[in-house]
Structure formats: structure tokens, C-alpha cells
User: Fold these one by one.
Assistant:
Number 1:
Amino acid sequence: MKRATVAFATCSAYRDLAKDDLRARAAFEARNIEIAPLVWDEHPTDIDRFDAIVLRSCWDYHEKTPAFIEWLGELERHGVPLYNPPGIARWNLDKRYLDELADKGIRAPRTKWIDAGSTVSLGAVLERAGFSEAVVKPAIGMNGFDTWRVVPETAAENEERFAELVRSRTVMVQEFLPKILDEGELSLVFFGGRFSHAVRKRPSGGEFRIQEEYGGTRSTIVPSESLVREAERILGAVPSAEGAPPLLYARVDGIVDGSAIVVMELELIDPTLFLAYDDSAVHRFADAVASAIGSH
């Protein structure tokens, strides 16, 4: 294929790209594709030079959500190919998509949604839901941002913190699943609709958050065929335009329960792809991008 230039959209903290994406650069070069960083909220005027833009490490959109949504709209109006598409990104921003998945038969933890500005107490939410333990976090958030565990006995001491969060954000109070402490969470990565590789993420002792920032660890895992099929079924529930190609990339995060996956998150905007955990992953990623821009 002719030389192509693809922008990897990032945030100012990773203006030279995250390690995961830098790891893929040689594979892209081998396919005659140049990768260029693009800080999403610096509004460059030369986006016409890109054959496509791939959302990669825009890891501050939860703090600048209205601006991020407007930027997606700008790209849409401009007509530059964006992966994953703007409609998918908007749908995936707010974790209330979990309810939509549940309506389609996908398992997810029981969750109560508290609208921004509500005056309901945390204790009342836990009592009405019947949760013996729960996780509180924003509906739009990432990396354990403003996330904590609570039980009914500690609700009173968390009321001020809860009220402060609800004052400006829609909040989710989600049933806590203890299996994450022992078994961790599975992440299954797909490129172009095809399964690529998987990792298991475990929390450190005394923690429940599995992010590395909180001491979480990662390890390679080979999931069973039934789990891969289950992840494919989950991705099949994602709304898309009729005739649309498969998602360029996707990550299904969940807790395994037998042959089922209890979905914690679908990462369709800018997930870490764990490219270091499978020697062929960078090539599958580069092939998916090359195929996408070649068919556009």
C-alpha cells in the first residue's frame, strides 16, 4: 500500500504516546504506515494530512467530557475517518451502556444510577438496592478515579464524599463482586472483530482496584474457546450502523463465572491493548489498522 499517515489521538500527559502504542510503531512502519501523535484538545488545523485518526490515549476525557464530545463532533463533521467511530465513542463514554447490554441478555453487576444533582443519601441507595457491599464511582470515569468500596455500616462516614461526587456527576453504585479479590478480572482484546489475546488483572493485597496505579498486576492467560465466544456475543450487543465493519479494536473486561463473563466494562474508546503480553499482538493491531484505512 502507498505510504499512509495515521494519527494516534492522545492527551497532553502522553503527547509522545503511551508505551503500549510506541511498542507498535515498528509494526506500522513495516506496513508503510507512519504513526503521528495528536493531542486531542489542542485542536490542530492540519488533520487533513491524516489518512485516519485512531483514539488511543485520550485519558483525560472524563475530566473534559463536554469538550471531548464536541471534538468528536468536529471530526465527524470534517469527515476524517475515526476509529472507533464517533457514535461508538459517545455510546461508550457513559457506563450506563451496561443497562443496555443487560437488556440484551448480557450479564453485568447490579447497579443503581444516581443522577447528578440528586440529594439521595448513600445509605438510602444501599438499603433500597439490598447491597451488602458496593463500589461507588462516576458513570464517566477511568483508572479508579473517585472510586471506593462501601458497606452499609460505613455509609454514614462516606455521605459527604458521596454528596460531593453526585453534586456534579452521575454516579453508579454497583454491587461489589468478591471474586475480583481472588481471581481478578479478565481482559480479552479484539482487533477487527477477531480475538487477539487476553490478560488477567489482579489487585494487590488489601486493594480491590486492579489498575497498576494501585499495585495491580497483569499476566498472560489463554482463555477457553467458550469464553472467547462469550466475549464475541457481548461485542455483538454493541449498537452499530447496519453494514458497519467490525470495531477496529475492543476490550472486554469482566469477571469469569463458569462459562459466562460478568461485564465490568467494555473498552471501546482508548483502551490499553496490553501489546507487551503477546508477541504477535502488535502485528494484529497494525494489520487491522491497515485493513481499515485500505478499505475506507
Number 2:
Amino acid sequence: MLYDAPEGGMIMSDWNSNQYMKFGAERTQPSADLVNRLGSISPSRILDLGCGPGNSTKKLAERFSDADILGIDYSEDMLEKARATYPELKFERSSVPDDLDKLGGKFDLIFSNACIHWIPDHRKLIPAIFDKLSEGGTLAVQIPYIQKAPFYRLLNLLVDTGEWKKLSVIHNFHNLFPEEYYDILSGLSESFNIWETTYYHTVSSHDGVIEWYKGSGLRPYLDMLSDEEKPRFLADLSEMISENFPRRENGSIILKMPRVFFTAKK
């Protein structure tokens, strides 16, 4: 949530924290899981990079109650939500990587949950973030595994042909494959771990799948459409989802969410 300019120069509207947090528990779980993998570290100074509505910052504060924690994000809407929900925590507006040098000093833990896939050029980005760590500090990152997500496979098919082909110019995600993160991290650290987890979230209807992604990956596509086009686009997308996301025996829809995690020690 720190970078809002997809390739091609289109500027997206600000995030909608209320839409994003319609699935607050599900969106928070990966950050909780990442916190739990940090072991026995005792960071004095923590940066939550891409803090969004503050849910990940709160998890960090619960685990590291004595630490000085700063949450940063580019979205004013997300920061407003974070400050209102967690007034005891510190949040600042910042753009990464441009503002990294403006963050004074080093951090013992830099934590980023579901953020850096929005930021280009990870081969330069990750070393730049890693440079903000103190000696012995830890980088901890979670990102959606966009390349394996069933929803994005369908979305890409929809925008590749026909009426919605104009949307194919949008390239708002910048994920690499886990093997590429291995190469980057191996050049920075002698102690790192990479793993993948697929979450099986459930929604009550196929519209629930669209509601989830309205809070994240669908934003640039909807921003590019007129008010007349949006309902037709969502109807076409909903039809594809209905055909590819079958109802389970209890009537629910499984929303598979593969995610990549990594930690690295400086």
C-alpha cells in the first residue's frame, strides 16, 4: 500500500480501508503467522512497512510490547483508519522506496505484510530495505503468490481478449517467483528462510470473491472503467468465477489464497 502508480502512469484512487477490512480476520492471519515465525528475537526498534489499517502493527505490538514500533503507509485512508483504531501506536505517511532514506536510523525488525508486491523492481527494492536493518536485524515479508492465485488466472483470461482487452495494460503486481527471492536473499544473508502457505478462506457466495478483491487487486481495473462499464465487467467476471469456484457441500465457496513468506537475518 506504499506504491500507487501501476506501469503506464495511471494513478489509482486511494485505498478503501472499510472495503479492505470486510475480511479483516482473514487478511490479518498471515501477519499473525509471520510474527509467530520470528522466534526468540527481541527487537528494540520495528518498522511495519505497508501497515495498511494497522492490523499488522497491532500484532507486532502484542508480541513485542517493549519495542518502539512505527507503521508506515502511503494511503491516507489506511492511515486514518489505523490511527483511529490504534491511537496508542505510531503511524506515518511514507512512500517506499523513495522515502527510505528519510526514516532516521536503523531498525532491528522490518516487517511487511501484503505490501511489497505493489512496488516495482524487487531486485533493487529488497536490498534497499535490507540496508535499513541494524546489524543482526531481521527482515520478515509476506506477499500474495499472485502467479498461483486462481482468481488472478481468471482475471488475466478475462482482460486478455474481447471487450476488456484495454485493461490488459495494467501491470500492478511485481512479484517474483520464490526461487528468485532465494537468489536475492542468498546475496544478502547467510541465514534466511522461504516458505509458501495456501489459505483456504470461505465466502458465502461468488459475489463474496469479488468483494474480497474489490479491496485489493481489482482496484486499478475498476478505476480504469466508466460507471457504465463497471457493472458489465463485474458481471462477466462473476460468470467466470461461478464456473470455476464450485460451491462446497455446505454451500460455501472456497477462496484459495497462496502466499509466499520469507525471513532473513542481517
